[in-house]
Amino acid sequence: MSPIHTVLRRAGAVTALAAAGVLTTAGVAAAHVTVHPESYAKGATDGTLTFRVPDEEDGAATTKVQVFLPTDHPVLGVLVSPRDGWTAKVTDTKLKTPVKTDDGTITDAVSEITWTGGRIAPGQYEDFDVAFGQLPDDTGRLTFKALQTYSDGKVVRWIEAPEQGGDEPENPAPVVRLTAKGTDGGDTGTGTPRPSQNPGQVASASDSTARGLGAAGLVVGVLGLVSAGFAIARGRRGPR
């Protein structure tokens, strides 16, 4: 095998390994339970939250999903959208601090939703839609802790709240940022999510970033491969 073929072959192998590493990172980044859209306006009304649950186990299916809603900053008017094959159980809790609204004082709110009866196969995901009447306007984010139970009995607890400016925890809880009305980066508060944040179609930010890095890695690898080939070809010809 000629020297130029050897170098080209090695460069190609390095490029392939780099691309595979980035793509693997993308798969891991998207493996946790997420909520979409990732942001809403404070006090938004008549909207939808979509909880995306992927199955990351090789030999076990997801058979139970539990989502816990915050009661210190309650989500009002919760309704669960039917999901084929799944049965939803909704649990209400008496609020320590009642919430006053235009329709009266609210003393109870949904604190937990549990889906059972269905199966999410390995390598697949399921979207669970939850409609709400009103989001709180006295906090900057809502944390929805979640438990994912597999057919082999394993339970993954997505309950770690990410710290602002810190690294993402190992088992992060789904989080919705609440922005001031009229600012960018969230739902307008009218109940209709922006097209780019349509529930069930939005990929997690970490997944999008990982895919971008993967594409950049492939481009850099190809450029390096071509440069190596030209350099060796010029060296073999020598000066005129």
Description:
This protein folds into two domains: 1-30 and 203-240, no CATH class; 32-199, Immunoglobulin-like. The protein is globular and about 50 Å long. It has 240 residues and is of the alpha+beta class. The chain is built from two helices and twelve strands. Helix 1 (3-29) runs antiparallel to helix 2. The protein has a five-stranded antiparallel beta sheet with strand order 6-7-4-10-11, with no helix packed on it. Strands 1-3-8-5 form a four-stranded antiparallel beta sheet, with no helix packed on it.
Strand and helix map with partners:
Elements: H1 3-29, E1 34-36, E2 39-41, E3 45-54, E4 62-68, E5 79-80, E6 87-101, E7 104-120, E8 125-134, E9 141-143, E10 145-150, E11 155-158, E12 175-179, H2 205-237
Parallel strand pairs: 2-12
Antiparallel strand pairs: 1-3, 3-8, 4-7, 4-10, 5-8, 6-7, 9-12, 10-11
CATH fold assignment of the largest domain? Immunoglobulin-like
Task: Give the H and E element order.
Answer: HEEEEEEEEEEEEH
Number of domains: 2
- The CATH architecture category of the largest domain equals Sandwich
What is the highest CATH level, the class of the largest domain?
Mainly Beta
Distance between the termini: 26 Å
Strand content: 35-45%
Percent range for helical residues?
25-40%
Largest sheet: 5 strands, antiparallel
By DSSP (H or I, 4+ residues per run), the number of helices equals 2
Number of strands: 12
Overall SS class: alpha+beta
Please give a quick description of this structure.
With 240 residues, the protein is an alpha+beta fold. It is 25% helix and 35% strand.
